[in-house]
Structure formats: structure tokens, C-alpha cells
Amino acid sequence: MGHRDGYGFLRVEGRKDDLYLSSEQMKTCIHGDQVLAQPLGADRKGRREARIVRVLVPKTSQIVGRYFTEAGVGFVVPDDSRLSFDILIPPDQIMGARMGFVVVVELTQRPTRRTKAVGKIVEVLGDNMGTGHGG
Predict the structure, then answer these.
(1) In the prediction, which pLDDT does 59 show?
(2) Which of 1, 26, 34, 106 meets the CB 3.0–4.6 Å disulfide criterion with 57?
(3) Whether 43 contacts 51, CB under 8 Å
(4) Which GO terms describe its cellular component (predicted)?
(5) Which of 88, 19, 25, 20 is nearest to 55 (CA)?
(6) Among 73, 74, 116, residue whose Cα is nearest residue 95
(7) How confident is the model at residue 17, as a pLDDT?
């Protein structure tokens, strides 16, 4: 379970308590992924911590968010605050979206510790006024 501040919690099957994931660990997974994790000790605040070994079942790759451009670079900010990363959109993948439009993005490259997520816009839902579906 991701948090907008970057850290997250790992829900363990058959257990009540969740394991804490640092923002560094969350860079390797997305909210909703099923992962293989290694429990570590407790952190400074007494939370049981874990390290992501690998993603076993990636979450569906379509994400809704708003399209923005900054210094000529297009990116989407996910609406889901549990996804604490932006998604870079190559210029040939924007499907006519304009600044502030709500779009559906398909991830073409998942985020890692060293690289940002990259995606392509597969649907433009509407303008920044939130008028719903449109062209």
C-alpha cells in the first residue's frame, strides 16, 4: 500500500500487522503489486521493516492522471495519491493531450531506483475542468 509521501506498507497474507517499506523500497514497486519481500528488523520508530526482493505479479499497467509539460518534457501525475511518482511521456505518445487534461496512461517502463516510469497515453478523458469523457 503506497502513501503519497513515498513510503508504503506491505500487507502480508495471513498476518494482521503490515511491514513498513521505505520510500527507497517503494521505488521498485507500485501500489497493488504482489511482491516477494524479506522482513528486516524494526526501524527507529519501532515499525517492522521489509526489503522488496522482486515483484511477482505487477499491478495492471493502466493509470489515470493529469498530463503536464515542463521545460518541453511531458509527464503524467497519477490521480491515485498512493502512486508517488510521475510518468514521463515521450512526445510521440501524447495522443493530442494538452496541459491539465485527464488521461489514461499505459506504463511502458516501470519505475526503478534509478529511472523514472515511462508510459504512453492510451486515452484522453477530458480537459482540466473535469467535464468527464470527451475527445
Answers:
(1) 80
(2) 34
(3) no
(4) cytosol
(5) 25
(6) 74
(7) 82
The pLDDT of residue 15 is: 80
CA separation for the pair 37, 75 (Å, rounded):
30
CA angle, 27 then 77 then 127, to 5°: 165
E strand or H helix at 49: strand 48-57
For the segment(s) 62-126, the CATH number from 2.40.50.140, 1.10.1200.10, 3.40.50.2300, 1.20.120.10 is 2.40.50.140
Give the C-alpha separation, 107 to 87, whole Å: 8
If we measure between CA atoms, which residue out of 6, 124, 17, 121 comes closest to residue 62? 121
Dihedral sign, Cα of residue 30, residue 31, residue 33, residue 37 = positive
Tell me the average confidence (pLDDT) per consecutive run of 10 residues in the chain, 135 residues long. Answer: 78 84 84 88 86 86 91 92 89 93 93 88 80 45
pLDDT at 133: 47
